[in-house]
Write a structure and sequence with these properties.
With 567 residues, this protein is α/β, with parallel strands linked by helices. The protein folds into 3 domains: 107 residues, Phosphohistidine domain (Glucose Oxidase, domain 1); 107 residues, Orthogonal Bundle (Enzyme I, Chain A, domain 2); 314 residues, Alpha-Beta Barrel (TIM Barrel). The protein is built from 23 helices and 16 strands. An 8-stranded mixed β-sheet has the order 1-8-7-3-4-5-6-2. Helix 8 links the parallel strand 5 and strand 6. It is globular and about 80 Å long.
Amino acid sequence: MNVHQIIHGLAAAPGIAIGPALIFDPVAVADIAASASSEAEVARLDAAIAEVDLAISALEEHLRDAGKVEEAEIFDAHRMLLGDPSLRDRALALIVDDGMGAAQAIGVAGEEHAAEMLSLDDEYLSARAVDVRDVVGQVQRRLTGVAGLAERLLTPAVVVARDLGPSDVMSVPRDRLLGFALGGGGLTAHSTILARALGIPAVVGLGEQVLGIADHTLLALDGATGSVQIDPPAEEMTRLREARAALDARALALRADVGLPSVTRDGRQIALVANAATPTEARAAREWGAAGVGLLRTELLFLERPDLPDEAEQLALYAAVAAELPNTPITVRTLDVGGDKHLPAFPLPHEQNPFLGWRGLRIGLSRPDILLPQLRALLRAGASADIRIMLPMVSTVDELRQARALLEQAKTQLTAEGLAQSASPQLGVMIEVPAAALNADVLAREADFFSIGTNDLTQYTLACDRGNATIADLYQPLDPAVLRLIAMACEAAHRHGRHVAVCGELGGDPVATALLIGLGVDELSCGASSLPLVRAAIRAADSDECTILAQRALACANAAEVRALLG
């Protein structure tokens, strides 16, 4: 690739990076320092594992001291992977039984472990396979002295690789890692999470073609659009540099507006809150002026471990998040697994249609031993914070009634135990299934609030798997059918004096802000980085104009017409 070319992948972390390519392609390491005895190889392996564990522990402690809790948790998970007895046992067997050297043995064992994760066809576990390779690669480098990214990246560059592990991202100075372009990777990969947290532009999922880029080739990477330009012409370089300067200026201006209220030009207050999963994300939301948390995802606490978290651990998470945003509402979604999310501690059965099967609240109601401790922890957290409870994947009012009965059971238990709890917790439902929108009037009589999950609502309304690239053109959150269901839910909720939020991706799209206000949405919840853009869109809107816009959108024939209407 030595002529101007544009390739596209997934927009993983926003920002524009311009610089020479550095190709980082760590290969399987043969053991270049094998000993004569298996005992010596085992001793070398254990020494290398201990050294890597010490290094990861030091990095984790440094991150915690810096207040970067989420990033620290990534490396805590790496220590768990490194200490997995099955990984070491397999490597020992290869050394003793097959005569392999330590570096080759741990490499084979790690690749087998990663392959098992990849075979499960689960996005989350596929991302964790990269972590296994990252940890194993660190051990191999200790054993062989082969250079890692830190030794390769000596001057500022855009790193091109098949995948990057979190240790690769954290091992190099920020001013040298201009951005990264990955053939693999994903939006839930730990390296991607770190890139967003550190402000490193990134594009992932580019495919094998990206590995054909030659070292030192000039690249221009746009992490917001998912594009990578190879050898861009001079006029394009000028445009990109101007765009990058404009982004920097815009970021400064938005930072200055962080304390302004989220109110329309004619005085309508729209609650602007954040989606979060960790205290770190809640802290970022506070820094961008969030008025609370509109969606606290609780899955991460369950996903990174071989056992289920107990009530005390769950309580600690909710209290830590609430402490980052004191005196604001914290809306917590109860455990939402199934579909494409699986728990190591709670294997789910194989289903022909998992997105239409046992997931969300359906699991919680059939497994009260999982849901009840979570409800207890939420009630206890509510003794000192405004904790609101939100139920995912609700289809019928009977499910809401069963969940409320479990909530009453939790309250009774806590009272009997003399434990402080919320006096009157709000219990709301997510509108993610068309049936919930169609039954919104009935649900609004018994739910305390609605939160519309536009991602799943779009998927279910249009019968379109949002992860299926073959039919990606059908997945359109702005389709009038989806908008009509949102309007229906808002009308029903308001008839009964209920509050309506949007917490799906559409809630963080400033282009859609005026439309959602016009449809009747009272609250918008989005990622911390989207808060300033949505705040600006709210403050630029007028309620009457929004209502007219919504009426026109509902009369459109398709999503393309709606997008054209929104400009």
